[in-house]
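Blinded run. Sample ID left blank on purpose so nobody reads anything into the name before looking at the predicted structure. Input follows.
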Amino acid sequence: MITELRLDTLPTEHEAEKASNSYLMSLVALIGGLPLPIVNLIATFFFFVANRRGTYFVRWHCTQALLSQVSLIFVNGFGFWWTMSIIFGDRSWSNAYFAYIFTLLLFNLIEFIATVFSAVQTRKGIQVEWWLYGEITHRLVKP
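Blinded prediction complete.
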């Protein structure tokens, strides 16, 4: 899921810290807005906007973090509204619902671990590219 590549030139301490913070932003938002899946996306988006004119290393990691949150909003949003329709609506618990929630939790756990790993590695100045998101990020962010 994650590949590590060394950059030709190491980022400065300040750049590494900002790039690391792009991943940590979603974790901080997770704690603050746990039941609402959009809070992580909004926090990551504002951090992205604040750093969109930063160095390539910072912009690249802000974009990758944002892309991961965009995909999570769909997965988590669907699970959130399905749960609300069961609690407050006329839908009932089903095997399909529990299978989806299990998959959602597994997907979020993997993303959480990858986010922490990426934050630590980028803080060290190591380029971390997630499978799928890294390729899309390369197409979106130009040096």
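Unblinding after everyone has recorded impressions. The chain is about 70% helix and 5% strand.
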